[in-house]
From TrEMBL, chains A, B:
<feature type="domain" description="Aminoacyl-transfer RNA synthetases class-II family profile">
    <location>
        <begin position="46"/>
        <end position="284"/>
    </location>
</feature>
<comment type="function">
    <text>Catalyzes the attachment of proline to tRNA(Pro) in a two-step reaction: proline is first activated by ATP to form Pro-AMP and then transferred to the acceptor end of tRNA(Pro).</text>
</comment>
<keyword id="KW-0067">ATP-binding</keyword>
<keyword id="KW-0030">Aminoacyl-tRNA synthetase</keyword>
<dbReference type="GO" id="GO:0004827">
    <property type="term" value="F:proline-tRNA ligase activity"/>
</dbReference>
<dbReference type="InterPro" id="IPR006195">
    <property type="entry name" value="aa-tRNA-synth_II"/>
</dbReference>
<dbReference type="InterPro" id="IPR004154">
    <property type="entry name" value="Anticodon-bd"/>
</dbReference>
<comment type="similarity">
    <text>Belongs to the class-II aminoacyl-tRNA synthetase family. ProS type 3 subfamily.</text>
</comment>
<dbReference type="InterPro" id="IPR002316">
    <property type="entry name" value="Pro-tRNA-ligase_IIa"/>
</dbReference>
<keyword id="KW-0963">Cytoplasm</keyword>
<protein>
    <recommendedName>
        <fullName>Proline--tRNA ligase</fullName>
        <ecNumber>6.1.1.15</ecNumber>
    </recommendedName>
</protein>
<dbReference type="InterPro" id="IPR004499">
    <property type="entry name" value="Pro-tRNA-ligase_IIa_arc-type"/>
</dbReference>
<comment type="subunit">
    <text>Homodimer.</text>
</comment>
<dbReference type="GO" id="GO:0006433">
    <property type="term" value="P:prolyl-tRNA aminoacylation"/>
</dbReference>
<dbReference type="GO" id="GO:0005737">
    <property type="term" value="C:cytoplasm"/>
</dbReference>
<dbReference type="InterPro" id="IPR002314">
    <property type="entry name" value="aa-tRNA-synt_IIb"/>
</dbReference>
<dbReference type="InterPro" id="IPR017449">
    <property type="entry name" value="Pro-tRNA_synth_II"/>
</dbReference>
Length: 482, 482
């Protein structure tokens, strides 16, 4: 049995820990025979679906509607926006044949769908009445990445892409804030993953955007992971795809656009990595495929009936209250094996029912996040579960935020920057704003990247750039990244 | 306005009616610049999602778990099962390039995923403890079809594929019945679409299957549409992919497999085609994106406030009861325009609130399926809506079943078969069971196909084959098909 558990500590070898959890908790299988393409197993799919549902709810509350665009995009669509094609073409997969025949023109597997959506937007948007247009799709996208890592960087990965069009730039900028708020409601409030929402420096923006805003979370190894992003596309695509509308005064104008991509795959990676511990996954109720597992314990055949009866009645009661409950009455596994397996899979609460519990009006409750075990009166079960649901999420949030805060340091000198990045810290520092300074920093710190300023940040006089000593115009975050 | 409505009668030109409904009700857009690939608009996506949810619920209730396999399948996987590769290879799309480089081996876009799933099943299934294994995925698949038709035949289309493995053939055959029951629960009970569940003749089975069972519904033009199918794969794929298990006695054996494909796209097509009428879509509550639309009507500014107040309070009440309600208070459209538009889109119930309704405790209610309008007391609204939900579904079911029954005839002679097929009937007839007879029938009736026997059917002596006069062993259904 112990060979099935995680064999390294998360704090000592995060990379190995992460790889082991993914496989041992039954999330992915990496043995599929196309490199960089992952098989998503049921436990992972159920978590991912819950995350999708949260985002879709928020998007619909804020007026977005679901669509589904074709997987394939003609090459000519890409060519329309110059920066976009430069950014994405090198990693596009191309469909060139069907059956025994060569296609007349090759078709891209969508790496992202601006050039599919906006081709249609030129038909759909004619008048001010058609605006704002807010659509999204929940799909996989395809990029021929190297250095793939499950849920972090894949050749096929899951996300949502929302594409909005407005009559003014002001509305588009408000959409950026709405997207940040949507991310906060799901990623922080439901999943307990803290993040910074940063405006990327101009050299690190989405290909084809005027500006990119992105959510960065901090992984246990001190590297940041971008888990969602919103792009202010200005009127670039509108001009490339001729998306115009007649305003109320009868003037034809180009729309202003944004696109928003919650990285469902990467959010799942962050969830696993940030909340997990040396025993495996730790899941909040919000996404746990099983929220409460009931393990009956009996060693003598004469106890079996009363133990199982009680287990079934508890199961029934919690199911009726809407909880996702599983009574693990499989006879081919021991209680100890089950404990380990459900801990590895991150089930938030375990109820143990043995002879003692069956004979009294009590239950033994184990919570996965703290490892605490306690006896409660059976009458207080529902109340206890409700409390645990809240308190587990609060605990995960608190721990995650504390971790991120404790791994963030301010730096004023190149020496401090180098030391902090080496030790796996997220660095906050005054910065001159120049690309060449950022590139120099990156080179000399083995990959430290200027991630950007906070979205509400205003430029000003911030003393000297921590890296080059020139006058600083910004306070930026710097970190190594995935 | 009238130019936006459907301009032909469904009974007179079904094909044109169907094309107009798809576009005018805002379901699909066919202007995307890759032929055979369809843009799914919000109204369609919401219907499709509801259908997915129903199937996923039934599948999970019967022990299936969700997975997601890669889109791409290596050519070598296809080659493993001889009939399968012959059946599917001619229509496979191939990815051959990434960026500027040629891939070492070409990758198929999944036309169906047996050869992806079963490659992994050989890892996942080792012992009797691993069985039964029941997994499914909700995805798009890709086939280079000609004669594409939106929601009926596409190069990209949406479905579910469930893949099960068992230790005995008996269990596999029980799965076929479970699949039929799942189809019945969703397609008939929730959506009101009647179908026959038929065992296909050997020459019309899925490539690689021992037997194919399929649900056929009858479209308004008298052609049948296959909307779901289950395949008894026997041990063919198990042998091709070496999927074996150690049984309880320690003997290594090949598994028995089935796969089940509810055709979500085609079920949606049947829903539109069968329930729709000359005004457009007619949707049951189960899948209607909006179940109740409230249209406020006022011609004098002084009535506006009281009308809108009442409209809002009705909206609020119904929302709290869990209905999908939309208050259409847009000022840029007239009530008449709104009536037509929501009728075209198939919203099952409309509540009209004018000055009269605002001044009294009454409401005017319109039901889309029958076109009836009546006044009710406001206090009876909830009760009325609950009744309508049931009665609309019952009415759609009854009409659909009556249509299918009225378009089914028995035939005993070639003349009767020819006449019935020409007039758009589904024919029930004694049949000899020979492929050459079926091919002769098909050729001489301009496409009439032997669709198979009912699943519970037992072979016996059924007089003479209606087509060739030889002794008949079966009663089969024959029809032209999509």
């Amino acid at each position: 049995m112990s060979s099935l558990g995680i064999t390294v500590k998360k704090s000592e070898d995060f990379s190995e820990w992460y790889s082991q959890v993914l496989v041992k908790a039954g999330l992915v299988d990496l043995r599929y025979n196309v490199q960089g393409f992952v098989v998503h197993r049921p436990w992972l799919m159920r978590i991912i679906r819950a995350i999708y549902r949260f985002f879709e709810e928020e998007l619909e509350k804020t007026g977005h509607e679901p669509v589904l665009f074709p997987l394939v995009i003609p090459e000519e669509n890409f060519e329309r926006e110059k920066e976009h094609v430069q950014g994405f073409k090198p990693e596009v997969f191309w469909v060139t044949e069907a059956g025994d025949e060569k296609l007349e023109r090759r078709l891209a597997l969508r790496p992202t769908s601006e050039t599919a959506f906006y081709y249609m937007y030129s038909f759909w948007i004619q008048s001010w009445r058609d605006l704002p247009l807010k659509l999204y799709q929940s799909v996989s996208v395809y990029r021929n990445e190297s250095n793939t890592r499950p849920l972090i960087r894949g050749r096929e990965f899951l996300w949502i892409e929302a594409h909005c069009a407005f009559s003014t730039h002001e509305e588009a900028l408000r959409q950026v804030e709405e997207d940040m708020e949507n991310s906060r409601k799901v990623i922080w409030e439901k999943l307990g993953i803290p993040f910074l929402f940063l405006r990327r420096p101009p050299w690190d923006k989405f290909a084809g955007a005027e500006d990119t805003y992105a959510a960065d979370t901090l992984m246990p190894d001190g590297r940041v992971l971008q888990i969602s992003s919103t792009h202010d596309l200005g009127q670039r695509f509108a001009k490339a795809f001729d998306v115009t509308f007649l305003d109320r005064e009868g003037t034809r104008r180009h729309v202003w656009q944004t696109c928003y991509g919650p990285g469902v795959w990467r959010i799942t990676a962050a969830l696993i990595a940030i909340h997990g511990d040396d025993k495996g996954l730790v899941l909040p109720f919000s996404v746990a495929p099983i929220q409460v597992v009931i393990v009956p314990i009996y060693y003598r055949e004469e106890d079996k009936k009363s133990v199982l009866e009680k287990a079934h009645s508890i199961e029934e009661m919690l199911k009726q209250k809407g909880y996702r409950v599983f009574l693990d009455d499989r006879e081919e596994y021991t209680p100890g094996w089950k404990f380990n397996d459900w801990e590895l899979k991150g089930v938030p609460v375990r109820i143990e029912i043995g002879r003692r519990e069956a004979e009294s009006k009590t239950l033994t409750i184990y919570r996965r996040d703290t490892g605490e075990k306690k006896q409660i009166e059976e009458a207080k079960l529902l109340e206890t579960i409700q409390e645990l649901e809240k308190s587990i999420l609060e605990n995960l949030k608190t721990k995650a935020r504390r971790f991120m805060e404790s791994r963030t340091v301010e730096a004023r000198t190149p020496e401090e920057v180098v030391k902090a990045l080496k030790e796996g810290y997220l660095v906050k520092m005054p910065f001159c704003g120049r690309e060449e300074c950022a590139m120099d920093l990156k080179e000399k710190t083995d990959g430290g990247k200027v991630r950007g300023t906070e979205i509400s940040f205003k430029e000003g006089d911030y003393g000297k750039c921590a890296w080059c000593g020139a006058p600083a115009r910004q306070i930026v975050y710097v970190a190594k990244s995935y």
